[in-house]
Amino acid sequence: xxxxxxxxxxxxxxxxxxxxxxxxxxxxxxxxxxxxxxxxxxxxxxxxxxxxxxxxxxxxxxxxxxxxxxxxxxxxxxxxxxxxxxxxxxxxxxxxxxxxxxxxxxxxxxxxxxxxxxxxxxxxxxxxxxxxxxxxxxxxxxxxxxxxxxxxxxxxxxxxxxxxxxxxxxxxxxxxxxxxxxxxxxxxxxxxxxxxxxxxxxxxxxxxxxxxxxxxxxxxxxxxxxxxxxxxxxxxxxxxxxxxxxxxxxxxxxxxxxxxxxxxxxxxxxxxxxxxxxxxxxxxxxxxxxxxxxxxxxxx
Length: 300
Description:
five-stranded antiparallel sheet, three-stranded antiparallel sheet
């Protein structure tokens, strides 16, 4: 795979002798997802990554847009194993990764909030975005905005550190509130289904100017404190992430074993390790798109 700087396309070509086609490497981590024999030319826009420079946002490598897992499921938006704790890429490294044919993701920090809007999940005849804006007197276009490759939107905000939020609300179907423990596809990447790029809205605010989410929104998505354990946990969130790093989530696909581990993590962290457990669970490519479902499971 080579990179045409003029067109911004990743194109098929020679690969190094010590590297198999389709194999990605990140630090000491390497993945070899299945890709089609003749990958298409992708409409990458590496110039879009410049908006992340100097903002502190953490960029991570994702698979190539046409990658599939062992069961043939598309994982072009999924990160490599170990992504929650891996060293983030610089913007220049992210551009190089895109040049090699891979997508790029943004790993959300404890102060990041991204509102992910997917019209494909709207109820027929409903526009939850308009309702949300009217309900809490907010204008989402005031925040840095990415138009996704599927026609959705990502709105970047900041929030107070330590705030626990509900990632979905039943009354606003098609909208997710993504925080630490999640990642979003970075602008400039290519959607695996439409093969269209993610692009910053032409009139958007610069990412460096992303403001704190309004109090009305934070109150709306705030998670109730009563979901926490009564007894204080002995394991910190960072320690849990490191412990989970040693476990392969593919070995916990049976619900009973997975649920038992979730309960143990919940108890050990007094409920504070929720985001880390979700991130670990969806690092299994088979469940890469199941974050909302995992997050909705409750420990009682």
